[in-house]
Amino acid sequence: MLLAPSILAADLADLAGALALCEAGGADMVHVDVMDGHFVPNLTFGIPVLAALRRRTHLPLDVHLMVNQPERLLDEYLAAGAARVAVHLEAVTHLDRLLSHLRKRGVKAGVALNPSTPVEALVDVLPALDFVLLMSVNPGFAGQAFLPRALDKTRRLKALLTESGAAVEIEMDGGIDRDNIARVVAAGVDTCVVGSGIFAAPDPVARMSELRERARQENP
Q: Is residue 155 scored above 60 in pLDDT?
């Protein structure tokens, strides 16, 4: 299991401190939620912030674009330092073209799915994907409760990937915490995005270790 702390849940007045916590806790990457106020209600991190984050950490930046027409600014986000980019299926018209562009630029190409979007919608782009980001909350707000039906959705996606033979990683974002991470990983998730479950803890570094330990439980 790879762990990707979401800095949207951190102290936004101390993002450098949040990055230091991620490094001290052994995070595998840093998840950056980009919201445009249109695809989702809120506004969050823009290109200058992403570039500043890149300068302050050696960890890969896992960028989740919750924006309409992400192709408009895609190259600028890549230039700012994104190592992985997930665009929403619901927000892109020419998805295959966009995924091809990401791979040509040398970053990992991902597609994010809202809770109501079936995994079967991805069948024709699986060869162009490096990862799928399953939303286990409705996107746009930090701190929401986990939607249990996301576990069955993960199992369906896992079966689809096995049938196709595609080497595609499954990532999940939304409401993952110490109480459900074992079930999430057991369902087939490879990368867990955790926000409040880390940064709201009294000791975020210790919480990251606890999450890894709980993810290894055999009987969640």
A: yes
Tens of pLDDT, residues 4-23: 999 999 999 999 999 999 99
Report yes or no: 119 and 109 within 8 Å, Cβ to Cβ: no
CB atoms within 10 A of CB 48: 10
Residue-range domain boundaries for the chain: 2-215
Domain 2-215 class?
alpha beta
What's the pTM value of the predicted model, to 2 decimals? 0.95
One of 36, 62, 130, 173 is an active-site residue; which one? 173
Active site residue 203: no
Is 62 a residue of the active site?
A: no
For 50, phi then psi, to 5°, come to: -60, -45
Can you give the chain as a three-state secondary structure string? Answer: CEEEEEHHHCCCCCHHHHHHHHHHCCCCCEEEEEEECCCCCCECCCHHHHHHHHHHCCCCEEEEEECCCHHHCHHHHHHHCCCEEEEEHHHCCCHHHHHHHHHHCCCEEEEEECCCCCHHHHCCCHHHCCEEEEECCCCCCCCCCCCCHHHHHHHHHHHHHHHHCCCCEEEEECCCCCCCHHHHHHHCCCEEEECHHHHCCCCHHHHHHHHHHHHCCCCC
33, 36, 62, 130: the active-site residue: 33
The candidate with the shortest Cα–Cα distance to 128, out of 104, 154, 156, is 104
Task: Give me the residues paired with residue 211 across strands.
Answer: none
